[in-house]
Design a protein that fits this description.
Blueprint lengths: L2 H8 L1 E2 L8 H11 L4 H19 L3 H18 L3 H7 L10 H19 L2 E2 H21 L8 H9 L4 H29 L11 H18 L1 H17 L5 H25 L1
Parallel strand pairs: 1-2
Helix pairs in contact: 2-3, 3-9, 3-12, 4-6, 4-7, 4-8, 4-12, 6-7, 7-9, 9-10, 9-11, 11-12
Length: about 270
């Protein structure tokens, strides 16, 4: 039994070791030949596609995606404090965005411990969710004074509309996709940094990674266009929000990101 198979049996799903695959060797060749950000991003997304699809089905990732979709609805409904208490988040932590995020961080880790399940993709998803909520909530809260717990709850509840959820989902998938690509690429980019290599300095390598992050955010617009309609139809029209619906949403969002990387590479 392979190391990866043993880890999956024990509940830890790793993203995989792409450098051994043919598709990953193609990515390495693109980096070495000064290919564009668009070309490298699309090739890396294709190379990592199966690993990410497999990892996204683990319980830790599913718990994070559940929070992405359901938190705004919990904030909008009666019993918000009780619902968060069930996650292990104390009422005192709702007094600041930092406290709320710390509670969510602990809730994800606690669920992983309870289920004896963890994954690299789940950890990347957790970080992406916390970053997205931090940025999006602060954009909706007063900047001159510390927000009250009620203002934080109202800001979180505001994502329960189609357009607002679409922006939150776009931010989440942009961050998650970039972190997933960088998880693989950063190790290889370091091998191409130095004299007579693709990146002669660390600054050039960092500039490439920043360009990759920007490109990924631009690609994620396709998720924003999809997510708003999905949320309105699934949550408010059909009232059919369940585990299967959320899993299908995340899977299709990744599929649309993957297709958009390819389209943009073709027109670059």
């Amino acid at each position: 039994m392979t190391l990866q198979a043993r880890e999956e049996l024990m509940g830890h799903i790793r993203l995989g070791t792409l450098p051994r695959s043919r598709k990953w060797r193609e990515v390495v060749n693109l980096i070495a030949t000064d290919a564009s950000v668009e070309e490298i991003a699309e090739a890396a997304a294709e190379a990592s596609d199966k690993d990410l699809a497999r990892a996204s089905r683990d319980p830790r990732f599913q718990f994070v995606s559940d929070l992405l979709v359901r938190l705004p609805l919990l904030a909008r409904a009666p019993g918000f404090e009780d619902a968060l208490a069930d996650l292990g988040i104390a009422t005192s932590e709702l007094g600041s965005v930092t406290g709320l995020l710390a509670g969510l961080d602990r809730a994800v880790d606690g669920r992983s411990f309870d289920l004896r399940s963890s994954s690299d993709a789940g950890e990347l998803a957790k970080v992406a969710l916390l970053e997205s909520l931090s940025v999006q909530l602060h954009d909706r809260l007063p900047s001159l004074f510390e927000p009250t717990p009620q203002e934080i709850r109202q800001a979180l509840a505001s994502f329960a509309s189609g357009d607002a959820f679409a922006r939150l989902a776009r931010d989440f998938f942009a961050r998650l996709t970039y972190r997933s690509l960088d998880y693989y690429l950063s190790r290889e980019l370091a091998n191409h940094t130095g004299e007579d290599r693709r990146f002669s300095t660390d600054a050039q390598r960092v500039a490439f990674q920043q360009a990759l992050a920007q490109h990924t955010f631009e690609v994620s617009r396709i998720v924003e266009e999809y997510a708003g309609g999905w949320y309105g139809k699934t949550v408010w029209q059909k009232q059919a929000l369940d585990r299967d619906a959320i899993d299908k949403f995340t899977a299709y969002a990744f599929k649309k990101m993957r297709s958009e990387f390819g389209r943009r590479r073709a027109v670059a």
